[in-house]
């Protein structure tokens, strides 16, 4: 695996800046360059793509496709000194496959303060938009929030979790911010990153991977061209998804649909070993086996995929230590 050959030492701010400058052409404006220094504007944008790539290679189990798509899209976006639209990613897959983990890594390796950065904004339907009867107010507030924060810093990251629980229509207020217009409401928004996360399409992804396994195809042979159509259709068919009847889908404003594949037993084992390492503990075969034995796998006949991915690994480890 090519990523495994990377040196996983942090670049540091100077090397990160050198990478950014070398990637840009001479037309990169001085304001953008100063913003990357961080001392001339409010942004704490510090992209460390080498660190991100290494972390994904070492800790994101079983997701060759997601890892490749995210890194490729991010590199292309950051190397463009004047993007014509923001980067818009939609992450799809079964619970515990790594969607939230990847979004947290993006915050960590793009901003100095990670998820605590004032320019990283995380929205959850149950927390921020809990009452359907307040939808018109939510729309107004969300539009104002995004516009105001992009005015403060064009290098902002917006994370929308559980899109399959978000009332349809709300996210439409973002449509002007996701396209290729030069200015929206007087705001420069083209350097922003939007990430939408949902489990919609997870069953369809699982079925494709199961059929590949039954056909004795290698997991790594599964490509986006097989998964993108079934994910898109699953979103379009789901009246509870935030993109239901959405112009965002109709106008193809999503740059990449990122599929997360279901995790097999050896992937869960990888997660257990990672978690033990994070706790500063040596690998213990009895703990690893106990966690695997307590994990539910499906389908019933093959017992191939973890029902919760790696979502409950940390709590199970704590129980068996």
UniProtKB/TrEMBL annotation:
It comes from the Eukaryota. The gene is TOR2A. Transmembrane segments: none annotated. Residues 266-320 form the Torsin-1A C-terminal domain. SUPFAM superfamilies: P-loop containing nucleoside triphosphate hydrolases (SSF52540). It comes from Moschus moschiferus. It is found in: Endoplasmic reticulum lumen. GO terms for molecular function: ATP binding; ATP hydrolysis activity; identical protein binding. Residues 1-26 form the signal peptide. Belongs to the ClpA/ClpB family. Torsin subfamily. Gene3D superfamilies: P-loop containing nucleotide triphosphate hydrolases (3.40.50.300). ATP binds at residues 93-100. This is Torsin. Keywords: ATP-binding, Endoplasmic reticulum, Glycoprotein, Nucleotide-binding, Signal. The keyword Endoplasmic reticulum applies. Its main location: endoplasmic reticulum. One of its GO terms (cellular component) is nuclear envelope.
């Amino acid at each position: 695996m090519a990523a495994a050959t990377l040196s996983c030492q942090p670049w540091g701010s100077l090397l990160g800046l050198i990478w950014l400058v070398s990637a840009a052409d001479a037309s990169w404006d001085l304001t953008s360059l100063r913003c990357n220094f961080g001392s001339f504007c409010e942004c704490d944008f510090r992209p460390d793509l080498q660190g991100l790539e290494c972390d994904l290679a070492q800790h994101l189990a079983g997701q060759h496709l997601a890892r490749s798509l995210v890194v490729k899209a991010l590199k292309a976006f950051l190397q463009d000194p004047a993007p014509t639209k923001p980067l818009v990613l939609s992450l799809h897959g079964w619970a515990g496959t790594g969607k939230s983990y990847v979004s947290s890594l993006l915050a960590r390796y793009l901003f100095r303060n990670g998820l605590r950065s004032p320019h990283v904004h995380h929205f959850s339907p149950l927390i921020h938009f809990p009452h359907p009867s307040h939808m018109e107010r939510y729309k107004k507030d969300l539009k104002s929030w995004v516009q105001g924060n992009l005015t403060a810093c064009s290098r902002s990251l917006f994370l929308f979790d559980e899109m399959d629980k978000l009332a349809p229509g709300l996210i439409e207020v973002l449509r002007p911010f996701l396209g290729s217009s030069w200015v929206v409401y007087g705001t420069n928004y083209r350097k922003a990153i939007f990430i939408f996360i949902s489990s919609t399409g997870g069953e369809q992804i699982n079925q494709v991977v199961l059929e590949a396994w039954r056909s004795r195809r290698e997991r790594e042979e599964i490509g986006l061209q097989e998964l993108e159509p079934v994910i898109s259709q699953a979103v379009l068919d789901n009246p509870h998804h935030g993109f239901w009847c959405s112009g965002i889908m109709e106008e193809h404003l999503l740059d990449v649909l990122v599929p997360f594949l279901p995790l097999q037993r050896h992937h869960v084992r990888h997660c257990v070993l990672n978690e033990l390492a994070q706790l500063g503990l040596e690998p213990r075969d009895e703990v690893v086996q106990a966690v695997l034995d307590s994990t539910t796998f499906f389908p019933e006949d093959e017992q191939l995929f973890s029902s919760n991915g790696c979502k409950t690994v940390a709590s199970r480890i704590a129980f068996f230590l």
